[in-house]
Specification:
By secondary structure, the protein is an alpha+beta fold. It has 8 helices and 11 strands. The longest helix is centred in the C-terminal third of the chain and has 20 residues, at 215-234. The two termini are 27 Å apart.
Amino acid sequence: MPELPEVEGVVRDLAPLVEGRTIKKLSVSDTVVTSKLAGKETIIKGKTVDDFLQGMEKMKISKIVRRSKYIYFHLQKGDQPHLLVSHLGMTGAWFVVGSPDEITEEKFRKHAHIFLEMEDGGLLVYSDIRRFGEMRLLKSEEDFPPLLEMAPEPFSDQALNHFLEMAQSPKYKGKAIKEVIMDGKVISGCGNIYATEALFHMKIHPARTAERISRKRKILLFQEIVRVLQESIDAGGSTISDYRSVNGNAGTMQDRLHMYGKKVCTCCGKLTKSKQIAGRTSVYCPACQK
């Protein structure tokens, strides 16, 4: 599942290609239509297909930004601002093309589901192989309250204190630190890959509870999370399985990972172990991480 660095890469690639352009009309795949008719919230959330399509027509894309693991398309129709919130799920990808046939990888071409035709020509296409992604057309964040519960951006001045307060709160202090730092209400955008890496670099066992880690060490852990996230942003994210940035671009952070997906510890050479924490497989070194 794309995490903060991957989504940041998509936004940086997408913004110069579509900001300032106006959506002429939209269409969706038959898969989305039939799924919605069957009562499933496939990709388009909270609206019917017709309401979504009609609502997006003639919208100008004024700005695209990242918030945690979400892409925010700030839209304008007349003097009315709107917000399209896109989550890539596990296999979502955006393409800016002249036609769907220009999507080079067949698996993304075959699973193209949302088509935004631009007034000045060309298409903005959303593909999603497993269809776990989400799109919500809102007037503002307040229309979908869970967005308001996200932690501050990890690079912001407020993020460290927020993390320290949350980690020591009754809700989180007895939980495994891996679960805590993957919670978007505690730290925005840190998922399994980068939580695994940060904990390994800090030599902290992923199942150790938050209350059994000193304040000083929590601060160092947070700083390490930020460092790893920034390193991945600089490397274009981790292209693992089906992640792609805009138009199929791949990242290189997967070549720099020290623990995620490893069978042998890159530090001591011992076999790694794995443990299910918060529904995710946590890989760690039993010798190095305590």
